[in-house]
Amino acid sequence: MSNELKYAVFGSGSWATAIVKMLCENQTEVGWYMRSVYTKEHLIKEQHNPSYLSSVEFNIEQLKISNDINEIANYADVLIFVVPSAFIYSELEKLTVDITNKTVVSAVKGIVPETGLLLGEHFHDIYKVPFQNIAVIAGPCHAEEVALERLSYLTISCDDAKKAQHIANALSSDYIKTKISDDVIGTEYAVMLKNIYAIAAGIAHGLGYGDNFQSVLMSNAIREMKRFIKKKHKMKRNINNSAYLGDLLVTGYSLFSRNRMFGNMIGKGYTVKSAQMEMSMVAEGYYATKSAHLINQKNKKKTKMYIIDAVYNILYEGKDPKKEFIKLAEKLD
Amino acid sequence: MSNELKYAVFGSGSWATAIVKMLCENQTEVGWYMRSVYTKEHLIKEQHNPSYLSSVEFNIEQLKISNDINEIANYADVLIFVVPSAFIYSELEKLTVDITNKTVVSAVKGIVPETGLLLGEHFHDIYKVPFQNIAVIAGPCHAEEVALERLSYLTISCDDAKKAQHIANALSSDYIKTKISDDVIGTEYAVMLKNIYAIAAGIAHGLGYGDNFQSVLMSNAIREMKRFIKKKHKMKRNINNSAYLGDLLVTGYSLFSRNRMFGNMIGKGYTVKSAQMEMSMVAEGYYATKSAHLINQKNKKKTKMYIIDAVYNILYEGKDPKKEFIKLAEKLD
């Protein structure tokens, strides 16, 4: 891949904004698609995103901002999608540009709810993007700490190691260290599953469980994640690498994680609906829970996934969190 | 092992007090050795430990408290040692009772500094206790949460599964779940090593690193721990079980961990001596760091242990924490 490749980010939330910031450290120009006309105009006028990471100042000369997804898709060679999974399907429906020869990168933290596919699979099946053109960006990385330029590590996964390295280089800086991996499917699942475990951690906290229980929960979660991913895509991987365990920890221990916060409200007795209304948004892990459940239903021999089952029963089957966690606690070790 | 076996705890810190509380849920009588005459008298008069977990009330009828280590060693069949590793050598020197036929349990979180041996090895080598009579209690378990009766999990390791189960039963209750393991050496090393990683987490925090870095540090720590333990005692173990990973997390993420606090002061610029004076105690991990370093020095082919090396260089070689962590950050992934 040439060094002159043009990069673009699709989305304007905190993680999208953080990725644009990272790219601006290295690229002459970065394409940026966002749906909101207001956000675009504010950005151009005030040099910062009005709603997310607003402390990050951009040099507008360096950005090619548009509300037209096709304009940006046409402009760039490497397209990084950072739209919440709940909106990705409808956003992509606007896409008319042929992207089969472009590199498509997922920084979406979940599954496409409408199809039950990982974003990579979605691009492959619906948009005919070959697998070697599909990459994934995984953390552990809170966007807020990127804004503060606190040292963070990313893993870029792609079947094509050269492409992975090119993207890694484009994102690297004084405060971003990168490594590459060939486990595209595994890292995408890890990114999705961690949010379910963060909801579980939140529920536990809301119910009054303490730090001892939380550490047992996380220790069981990483073992469950390993089983789940192995069933979907068997290969040699060290589940304790940062892209899996690190990402689980930064989300499961974060008091700022929206998924953990959502779980906490559920644990404290809010209904799913009232917790969602209170947060005025839907936590990624909410959809991921259903997707993970459905995926396991399809397995001939089901994977033991006690934690995901408990979260599913609470969120989708109306089960009482307290009782469900008493049952779960018996299964953990 | 008969159900009538008598249990005793040696030590009067917070973890010792928590273990006495657990035993009192099941045993008619529990022996309790403590060095301090004042603590003994206060306990008998006020029904609680004056210095640690003082919210826990004991039924004094249920306790056989003594300042004479031999009286308690003589009384009990199962001796649980919970003395800080820095004092265990001198405490044990008082022991004249033959303990070769008793079950000896280590809940000491470190290595005997004078001999560089794990407590189990120390009992075997110096006191001729056969290995099948030696057990280890591992967390993840903050004593403070035991006091609050928050659900916690313990792992009891012993070569003799029946003994492990007997001890597990003696500690189990509504709020304590137990499992057994045959990895005595591995769990003892894990208990010791986690404190070094907690110091590392504290140093990182003191230096201003954030949550993203912390999760990468923990992800690297568990891999390093696995390598270290494998070198000392190769067997099939899942390093992500609660006794290893869970215990690492509860310590590494705890704001109340003395080791993390000590590290935090070092990261903020205190010298080792002033941090120790300020805390009016020595963090277990301080000794563990030296022991782990010495153990690795003796390995023919050294284990890569970047985090322990960095902590060692800072605590024992006077290296600058900031520079040392910049070097360490390059090696993590």
Automatic annotation (TrEMBL), chains A, B:
UniProt keyword Cell inner membrane present: no
Entry annotation: catalytic residues: K194 (proton acceptor)
Domain Glycerol-3-phosphate dehydrogenase NAD-dependent C-terminal: 183-323
Top enzyme category: oxidoreductase
Record bears the keyword NAD: yes
Any GO molecular function: glycerol-3-phosphate dehydrogenase (NADP+) activity
Protein's name in the database: Glycerol-3-phosphate dehydrogenase
Species for this entry: Bizionia paragorgiae
